[in-house]
Each structure stands twice: as structure tokens, then as C-alpha cells.
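input
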Amino acid sequence: MSDRLPKDYRVYIPLAIVFVLLVFLMPRSTKFNYSYSKGSPWMYETLVAEFDFPVLKTQAELQQERNSEENRIIPYYKQDQKVGLKAVQDLNSMDFGQYSELKPMIASSLDAVYQRGIADDGEYFGGRQSGDYDWTLVYVQKDKRAVKKPVEEILSVSSAKLEILASLSGEASADSLCRAFGVYNLIVPNLILDRQMSELVNTENLPEISPTKGVVNAGNVIVSKGEIVTAEVEQILDSYRAEYDSSIGYSGNRAVMWCGNIILAFAIVLVLFFVIWFTSPHIFTQMNRYVYLLLIFTLTAFTASAVEVTYPKALYLVPFPLFAYYLLAFFRKKLILPLYIVSLIPLLVFGHDGMELFVMHTVAGVVAIYVFDFFNRGWLQFVNAIIVFFTLASVWFAFRFMEGLDGAVDYWVLLRLFLASMISVALYPVIYLFEKIFNLVSSSRLMELSDTNNRALRELASKAPGTFQHSLQVANFADSAARSIDADALLVRAGALYHDIGKICNPQCFVENETMGETYHQTLEPKESAQEIIRHVSDGLQLAEKYKLPSVIRDFIATHHGTTRTAFFYSKWVNAGGDPADVADFTYPGPRPTTKEQVILMLCDTLEAASRTLKDRTPQGISELVNRIVQGKIDEGQFDEADISLKELHTVSENLKEYIRQVYHARVVYPSGKKRKISKI
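output
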């Protein structure tokens, strides 16, 4: 067993990083192992305070106090003396005609209101003593000196006009006179509200708001068994839990605590390693896929830890099934399921309701993984989300029933679970970002590539129709073979459709595209013919670059012939007296297949072409053909670097035999009808 362990040190470096992160994410306190919600009964034994603790104020209470204090700030004005002087000068320059005796009275009154100070109507706070405002004083800066004034002493533009009219109360139609001579136009603000200075001056004067409102002493009953958790009781419980988490956890030996965290983190990482090793060991050789797996695991652990520390109730809002979708996009179910369950283990460690959350999201994740195959496109994804929500809600209700639910339901939890299900769908497109970052190909991308209406395959069908039909048949062969050993059928189908795309560059070079009466190789030497044939691999890689095909598809193009020879032209060369040592000129450059899917494509490509020339299409003849080709590839060492077992090769061989029999099954020969003789009359 130890011989199978990865030898590459690069495999263990990412694991070490994950281990270190887990150690630091581990909780530093003893968990407060009680679950409660407002409106529900307390299902545990009577809870008695083990120590003194302050009762924390709610955010609403703190905000209300802040608003109350802020409403008691003193506005800060700057008074401009020049405004009043100019207004009096402008008044004295006016011609009042027969009403000139009123000018001194108006001037005196105008000077008086400017001395008091005039503020713009929109910036005047005098007299506003409602429930929102309680200002009684203002600051007025005059001649570089700020003094406090009662708010009633300053005027607005509107009230200043009224003061002018009051000074002319003995005169009839005083308002009309002031309007006619433009007296009102002389009344403009000489007090400017300085909001920045107001905040600066009053910040130091605001009292510090206490975050607490009383103390619960040790030995006092916090909540009794069966008691309904009211808003007040909930706040006391929240305060007790906060104090419990911040103090109790640090009461022991720190070295012992860190030792426990290290052991637990190591155990989780070890389980993670063995899950990958036993289910998909080949991933250790694919660093991009390997690192992506560890990233998803780390994201799950970090999210659980961060939310638990900041706002534990929001854990019901975290869409943990989304991480299952992120795995499902790039990996097979046999790896996804155990890996997803392992990634939820941190919930057991970090969450106060860890067991409940773990069971909920384990069940919901399993449902999501298997339902996604049916509802994974367009608006159908929302159907998937609804199914996940009902799964989460069902498990949550099951826990409530176990606690003795008596009709009280925290609908806010259900709302959070619903939003979490919807978020899973909303954030699914992030996989396309992961594709770019980690150079991966999702199942959605593979389905797009398998669409024969895309540009590359349309060009193949147009320029090399025989090759296109060959590729379609190979794709069908490979799909069936892949399913027999639980390989990635979608991946190998996409690879089969593009493996011969290089033949677009010179379609007549290949027999399946030759037109009647034309033989491309008739005038060529065997070496030249072989090089023309071999070139379709390098041409295919160039076209793959042009069409921006992912690297995993390019690998199929490069490996589908491995390091085999163009046997026909090599034999022709030797038979014509050529040097047998020139075998390199007739050999494909490789590389050889490294995955099950690449092995399957190589076999299906060879078998599809060979089966067309098979004369004996009996079951025995087909079986001999498949055995000969498979054994030939093994003898040539084409599968030496691939992660496929002899047992899997045997299964693939038997599947291909049956598939070829069905393709070339015998058909009924329909008898020709006899012509009816028409008698002449």
C-alpha cells in the first residue's frame, strides 16, 4: 500500500498549508452548547449563571442612544459683520420720497436684526424643539471669538422680516412700503452654518455610550426549562454566550488547547488526503485539479469559522450546497460525495449548532448532487434550489420535532434557508471564473464543446465530412466504453469529436475523405505519405489554439495515436527495400495516453477504423479484432503511463465487442417484388 503513496513533495505542500489554516481557524473557547430562538421554548434544564456577566444592549438600543445624543449637539455659526453694514448703507442710499422719515426707523431696526444674527431659513434651527430636536443653544463666531447664544436670540430670514414690520407697527401698509422700496431684499443671512466645525466641536462633548445595561450575577436563573424565550431573555442569553465564549475558553492551559487544535486539524487533513487517495489517486498528478479541491475545502472551513465568529445565526444563510456544485462541475460523483462530507466537518467543530447544520447540509448536498443532473440548465436551476430548500427545511423541522416543538416556529430561520438555496443558484456561474484561474473544464463547458453546431465542428463537417462521420462514431464508441468503467463519458465524447480536427488542413490525405477516382498517396513516397498522415496531430494542436479549445481537449488530440507507427506505409517502405531502421519517420511523436479517457479514445479510434474493413463480422471475428488491437497496444507500451488497470481494460474490451456487434448486426434481406403482368385486351 505504501508504494502507491504520492512521491511528489508538491502533493504535501498544499496539504500543509491547509493544515496550518485549519489550526488557526479552530475555536479558542469552549462551545456554548445550547440552541435557542425567540418565541420557542427552552428545551434544556434550567440555566443558571456560572459567573457575573453584563447584559449587552441590542444594536437598535445603541443606535437609539446615539441618535439621542447626536440630537443634543450645538450648531456652530459664523457671523459676517460686513453683510449688515452693507445692508444699512444700501438702505441709506435709497430715496423714500415722502416716506423719508421712516428711513432712520428702518435703519435702526435693520441694524438690530443683523446684530442678533440672521440665518438662512434652510439652516435655521431656532425654535425646533420637537421629539427629533432639542437644541436650546447655538455657537456664534464673531470677530474670531465663538460665544454661546440662546437659540431664540438669532433669527431666520423670515423672522427678521417680521421684526422689521414690528418696528413699523404704527404705520399703515408697512408691508407694502417695505416691498415697494426693496427693504426685504436687504435682509440676507449673515450667519453661515459651519457643519464641519459643528461636528468637530461637539464630538468631544458627546458622552461615551455604554454597550451594556445591567449585570446578571452568578447563581441567578437565566431561563427555566420550558420557558418561552422572549426578546429580553434572548438578549440575556446572547450576552451570556458572548461572555462565555470570550472568557471560559481561555481559562485552561493554552498549550493544551493548541495541542488539541493541532491534533484535530491534522485528523481532518488526513481524512481529506485519504478520501482523494482512495477515490481518485490520479488527481495527485494533476496539480490544478488538486489545488482546486483543497481550495473548495478551505473555503468551506473558512466560511463556517468566519460566520460563527461574527454572527452565528447567519450560518443558516450560508449556501453550503453551493460547494457541492463547485465540485460537481469538475469531478465525478464518487469523489464529490465523500469530499463534500469531509468539507462539512468544520461545521461540527466551529458551529454552536454544529450537529444540526452538519446533518442539514449533508442531506441537502447529497440531494443537490443527484438532482443537479436533471435540473442544471436555465430556469430549471431554480427548481433545483427549491428542492434543496425543502430538504433543508424538512431536516430543520425534524430537529424541532425532536426537541418537542409545540407550535412555535422561527420563520426567520426558514427565510435564511430559502435565501441560502437561492444564493446557491445565483453564485453557480462563478465556476467559469474557476475555469480560467485553474485551467479546468466544467461539465457545462464540455456540453457546449459537444454541440456539433459550434464553429470548429461545422468546419470539420464541411471540409472533411468523412472524418466528421468517423469522429461521431468514435464518440459513440467511447461514450459506451467510458460508462462501463465509470470514466468521464462527457469528457471522452468531447475529446473524440475533436481528436482528428487537424485533418481539416489536408482532408484528401485521408481515405475517408477521398473522392471517387482520386488517390492522394499514389504519387508520394511512403515516407512522404507517412509524414502527411502524422502531420494531422500537429495541425490539430494549432487549430485547437485557434479555436481556443481547453488543454484537456488538446491532450486528446496529442495522445490519440500515442507513439504508434503508420503501419501501412512502414510496411510499404520496408517491402520496397527501404531501411527498417528508419522507423522514426513513420512514428507519431506522442505523448502516450495518461488517463483512462485517453486510453479509451485511442482504442475506439483504432477499432472504428479497423471495423470498417472487417470482413468476418461474426461475434467471433469481432472478438478477435478487439483482442488483437488491445493486446497490440499493450505490447507496444502505449498504456504504460496511463492510470488504467488490466481489469478495466478487459471491461472496456468486452463493452466494445458488444457495441460493435450491435453496430454491424445482420439485417433482413427484403425480397424483390415480382412485376405484375398486364394483359392486353
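quick obs: DSSP finds 27 helices and ten strands in the chain.
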